[in-house]
Amino acid sequence: MDNYLKKGERIEDLGLNNLKIIQNPDFFCFGMDAVLLSWFVSRRIKGSPHIIDLGTGTGIIPLLLYGKTKAASITGLEIQEPLVEMARRSMALNGLSAQIKIIAGDIKEPGGEILPNTYDVVVSNPPYMRAQAGLKNNCETKTISRHEILCSIEDILIFSKRMLKDRGRLFLVHRPERLGDIISLMRLYKIEVKQLQFVYPSIKKEANLVLIEGRKSGKPGLKTDAPLIVYHQEGEYTQEIYDIYGMKKPE
Fold first, then answer.
1. Residue 183 and residue 105: Cα distance in Å, rounded?
2. Which distant-in-sequence residues (6+ apart) come within 8 Å of 133 by Cβ?
3. How far is it, in rounded angstroms, from Cα 127 to Cα 121?
């Protein structure tokens, strides 16, 4: 396995069907939001859909969806070349280069490999912060991953409207404070919000994530799932989080 690694990298076991991913702390490593989004998607899709993950980074969401669904095809689109190269090595490490395709490209001009009206499902864990908001990281890769510098919510919706099949579905994870803007833009681009689930760090704190499902050309009608609580007051994961991660709760 060391043959797949470069300086500063490590291999992380995902605890799912023996899948592994290459990570580098100097870049933007995946977090709980990617795990929760993959879980949210896998509960709602049936059959063998064609899936594309926008801003795939090191390929965590395609790997998790491969392990959790029966997708006919999974594609990851990423603009940052170092992350594209790392994600491709992760797919090779798992023997999945044929099953999960990592494409280098910009969602605003994705190129000829990505065709309109092709995908059943678009997934994205996008940058949460507006381009001018908050402190920027000295690492360009982390800044791009966190701020809407190269990819905005509107860019994702323009892509989804064009590339999704009619009645295809869009899944996002984002910050609750951006939800009003997101819903307004989704309607503008004819993607109707159908399901929301709020994620709370603990029962006494405000939600810090929201999981969103939309449907292209869908009819109005929004449902909300029961809230997902991450930690008990004692600082231990709730049973639902252990279940989502596929981990056994310590005795």
1. 26
2. 147
3. 19
| Extended beta strands in the chain, E state | 10-13, 20-23, 50-54, 73-78, 100-104, 119-124, 164-174, 191-200, 209-216, 223-224, 228-229
Report if residue 156 sits inside a domain: yes
144: pLDDT strictly greater than 70: no
Q: Find the CATH number of the domain harbouring 102.
A: 3.40.50.150
Domain that holds residue 180: 2-245
Q: What are the Cα distances from residue 163, in Å, to 6, 127, 176, 184?
A: 35, 20, 26, 20
Specify the pLDDT at position 29: 84
Which one-letter amino acid corresponds to residue 61? I
User: What is the spatial distance between Cα 54 and Cα 125, in angstroms, rounded to a whole number?
Assistant: 8
Residue with tokens 């701020």: 147
pLDDT tens-digit readout, 231-247 = 997 789 999 999 999 98
How far is Cα 109 from Cα 91, in angstroms, rounded to an integer?
A: 24
